[in-house]
C-alpha cells in the first residue's frame, strides 16, 4: 500500500497515514487522525490551515521530547489479529 501511495519505502521518521490511496506524513498524518477521533480532537484539524513547515517543526519538537515527557516502553505492543493488518511488519524501533 505504501508503494501505491508513493510513500517513501526506505525510511520512516514518524507516523504515516494512508487514506484513499494517498500517504500523509508527520503533522499532516497526526492532524488527519485527530480529526477522526471524538470531540474535542477534531478541532485540531483547523491547524492544517497553518503552513506545513511550521506544523512539522512543532511535530519534530514534540518527537524529540516525547520519551522525556511520556517515558519509553521496554517492549513493543503486539497487535491483536484484529489490528495486525494496520501495522508494518518492519520490527520495532530504530
> Can you count the helices?
2
What is the molecular shape? globular
Count of the domains: 1
Query: What radius of gyration results from the CA coordinates?
Result: 14 Å
How large is the share of residues in beta strands? 5-15%
Keywords:
alpha+beta, two-stranded antiparallel sheet, 2 helices, 2 strands, 30% helix, globular
What does this structure look like?
- The chain has a two-stranded antiparallel sheet.
- It is 30% helix and 9% strand.
- The longest helix has 19 residues.
- It has one domain.
- With 94 residues, the chain is of the alpha+beta class.
Summarize the structure.
This protein is of the alpha+beta class and 94 residues long. The protein has helices at 26-34, 52-70, and strands spanning 16-19, 22-25.
Give me the secondary-structure topology.
Layout: E1 16-19, E2 22-25, H1 26-34, H2 52-70
Amino acid at each position: 500500500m505504501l508503494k501505491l501511495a508513493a510513500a517513501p519505502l526506505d525510511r520512516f521518521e514518524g507516523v504515516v497515514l494512508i487514506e484513499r490511496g494517498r500517504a500523509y506524513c508527520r503533522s499532516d498524518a497526526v492532524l488527519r487522525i485527530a480529526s477522526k477521533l471524538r470531540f474535542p480532537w477534531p478541532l485540531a484539524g483547523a491547524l492544517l490551515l497553518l503552513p506545513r513547515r511550521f506544523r512539522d517543526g512543532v511535530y519534530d519538537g514534540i518527537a524529540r521530547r516525547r520519551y522525556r515527557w511520556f517515558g519509553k516502553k521496554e517492549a513493543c505492543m503486539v497487535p491483536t489479529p484484529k489490528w495486525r493488518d494496520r501495522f508494518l511488519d518492519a520490527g520495532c524501533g530504530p
